[in-house]
Amino acid sequence: MIVVKVGGSAGIDYDAVCTDLAERWKGGERLILVHGGSGETNRVAEALGHPPRFVTSPSGYTSRFTDRETLEIFEMVYCGKMNKGIVERLQRLGVNAVGLSGLDGRIFEGRHKDSVRAVENGKVKVLRGDHTGTVERVNTGLIELLLSAGYLPVLTPPAASYEGVAINVDGDRAAAALAVALKAEALLLLSNVPGLLRDYPDEASLIREIPAGEVEAYLGFAQDRMKKKVLGAAEAVQGGVLRVIFGDARAGQPVTAALMGAGTVVS
Ligand SMILES: Nc1ncnc2c1ncn2[C@@H]1O[C@H](COP(=O)(O)OP(=O)(O)OP(=O)(O)O)[C@@H](O)[C@H]1O
């Protein structure tokens, strides 16, 4: 089993990702696709007059402040436009894909964090009304049902809180939790960069290999949102996933290239 997570930042070639996935799926490989949608969510939020607000925690992690209106815009884009766009591409390629959010069937479950600590103008503030959380539990029943019936699951945040409230969760860490729960042999985190860069944004500074036991030591190279990918990779390998690859989804055969070792390989 391979879990592929494709991001939602500008420049990602979804046709390339889906074509590559479809070929591998038809060749008999068992796959699950998880996707993001941050770039498009920012555009739609601006257009709807509710611009995105990103907050940075005292420990340096950046996240989207998700009030109820933001959550609804997030769902429109992630579960609507992005998810159905990917499912449609796969269907056109002859793959019977099914798109679901983590809320459906409680595939992704976690605790609802209603407040977030954020550094603003040098001061730590507590912001309330946040609909975020972290995936703590993956309920694989529905996924296994779909896979055994020949469907390719296409998953996206949000997740369900334990009280059944939709919560915005990080897609990379959700994919990592899924890979652990399904005992996947590989987790691919594909985005609009060649991999983890030692000196971002210099693409020539690609880090080729990271030993599984040393992932956290590489957190320092990742800025803002890349940190969550590195954290997700650490969680996946600690949970028994043999290989995590940060790969490039901008062109070519992103899945095949990553599985052949292009990008940053954590093992
Ligand atoms: N050291 C680094 N190496 C590579 N990219 C980095 C680094 N530091 C920061 N980045 C940034 O991290 C981004 C990838 O994270 P981001 O969460 O935006 O991607 P995504 O997975 O495509 O999006 P989504 O949240 O929609 O799933 C890159 O586009 C890059 O700008």
UniProtKB/TrEMBL annotation:
GO molecular function, one term: kinase activity
Pathway involvement of the protein, from the record: Amino-acid biosynthesis; L-lysine biosynthesis via AAA pathway; L-lysine from L-alpha-aminoadipate (Thermus route): step 2/5
Superkingdom as given in the UniProt entry: Bacteria
Cross-referenced Gene3D superfamilies: Acetylglutamate kinase-like
The protein's Enzyme Commission number: 2.7.2.17
UniProt entry keywords in alphabetical sequence: Amino-acid biosynthesis, ATP-binding, Cytoplasm, Kinase, Lysine biosynthesis, Nucleotide-binding, Transferase
Annotated site residue numbers, Transition state stabilizer: K5, K229
Top class in the EC scheme: transferase
Subcellular location: Cytoplasm
Keyword Cell division: no
Domain Aspartate/glutamate/uridylate kinase: 1-246
Binding sites annotated in the UniProt record for substrate: R64, N168
Signal peptide range: none
Reaction(s) the record says it catalyses: [amino-group carrier protein]-C-terminal-N-(1,4-dicarboxybutan-1-yl)-L-glutamine + ATP = [amino-group carrier protein]-C-terminal-N-(1-carboxy-5-phosphooxy-5-oxopentan-1-yl)-L-glutamine + ADP
InterPro entries tied to this protein: AceGlu_kinase-like_sf, AcgluKinase_fam, Asp/Glu/Uridylate_kinase, Glu/AcGlu_kinase, LysZ
Biological function: Catalyzes the phosphorylation of LysW-gamma-alpha-aminoadipate.
PANTHER family assigned: [LYSW]-AMINOADIPATE KINASE, N-ACETYLGLUTAMATE SYNTHASE
Membership in a protein family: Belongs to the acetylglutamate kinase family. LysZ subfamily.
Name of the protein in its database record: [LysW]-aminoadipate kinase
Organism field: Deinococcus navajonensis
